[in-house]
Structure formats: C-alpha cells, structure tokens
Amino acid sequence: MLFNMGHTITAIKVQKRNPQRVAIYLDGEYAFGLARIVAAWLTVGKEISDEELSRLKEQDTLEVAYLKALNSLSYRPRSITEVQNKLNEKGFSEQVVEETIDRLQKNGLLNDAQFASTWVENRVSFHPRSQRLLTYELRSKGVAEEAIDQALGEMADDETLAYQAAESQARKLTGLEKPKFKTRLLGYLGRRGFPYAVIFPVVDRLWNELHMRMGTEGDQPGE
Fold this sequence. Notes:
The chain has helices spanning 50-75, 80-89, 94-106, 112-126, 131-140, 145-152, 158-172, 178-190, 196-213; strands at residues 6-14, 21-26, 29-35, 47-49. It is built from nine helices and four strands; from the N terminus they run ββββααααααααα. With 223 residues, the chain is an alpha+beta fold. It folds into three domains: 6-106, Winged helix-like DNA-binding domain superfamily/Winged helix DNA-binding domain (Arc Repressor Mutant, subunit A, Orthogonal Bundle); 112-152; 158-213. It starts with 5 loop residues before the first strand and ends in a 10-residue tail after the last helix. Helix 4 packs across helix 6 (145-152) and helix 7 (158-172) packs across helix 9. It has a four-stranded antiparallel beta sheet, covered by helices on one side.
C-alpha cells in the first residue's frame, strides 16, 4: 500500500487473533498491523509521515523476530546457529536476524558457552554418551570449538561416563548368560559413541560386580 506524505491515524484496534498486536487505520482505511509495544506511542488523530511509517514497520519486524526467537528458546536452550536458522526459515532478512541475535546476547538469553555446558550436563545426567559423540552433537549445532572444549573439560572421562551409562542397563540384563549379556551391553555403549577400548573393560567390570552381589562367580583372574 502506497502512502502520501502525511497521514492521520483514524483508529487503533486490538487484533482478535493476537491481542499483542493492533491494527492501524490511516485516513479511514486499514493500513497495517503492529506489535502493541511498537505502537504504544501512537494515538488516534496523530499525523504521521511516510518516513515514520517506514520506521514503525522496521521496528515491528524486529519485534516480531525477537518474539519468535523467544518462543523458540522457550522450548529448550538453543545455540546461536540454531536460532539464526529458525529466523532464516521464517524469512527474516540478514540484518534483522543479526540485530535479533545481538539483542538476545545482550539480554543474556543466548550464549554458546552456556548452551554447551547445559547440553553436556543434561546429556551426562539423563542420556550419557561419549565425549566424541557430544562433540559431534555440539558441532552440528554450530557451537565453536572453544566452547565445546570448555564444556567437555567440566565432565568426567569416557570410562566413568560409560560405566554410568551402562550401570542401570546392566541390571536389566542380569538374567542373561555372559555372551549375550556382553553382546547387548557392548551394543548399547557402542551406540552411545564409546570406543571399544573403553567399552570392554566396563562391560567386564559390570558383569563381575553384578554377579558378586548375587553371590555367584564372575570372571576368575585371567579369564
């Protein structure tokens, strides 16, 4: 819609589908929608220029992008690259995406070092896996190597992680004979990215510990 040099705001109405946005009417006709926070200074009867209209629309686009980013972050923490990709998918310009990312970072809502640390902590607590697999996951989310190294430096070594990952699973396999027990547990740890140099000693350790608690023989020395 093209406007002349000067316009009069004739109505400001809250949108029915989204109460956080208002419909702006100029010279008796619907013109466009704005976020309420962007339109807060507008009043019916106010004269407004084309330049001011253009600025309002730019501010509104930035506000919409910011709210969409916040909505994305409300589901789970995300890396900078993930949020950038989300905004790009929504069709926002490179400049809008850049300004939105900058605003999120300044407000402490987007931080790759913190994201990496949280990601690793959650994985170790609920879905243990190897450092190699964690590194792959974080790289795939666009996290820088420095942030990955810092996050991994705060966690246990692979042997400890493998033991933690397999301990509860091993109890579920208690009734199996040793060959099947080892095959199942080896596969379980392998799918979580642990190297076989780590897996074999952990599996043997768990077999022996389970059978010692049950009062049966595990492996004899040298077996």
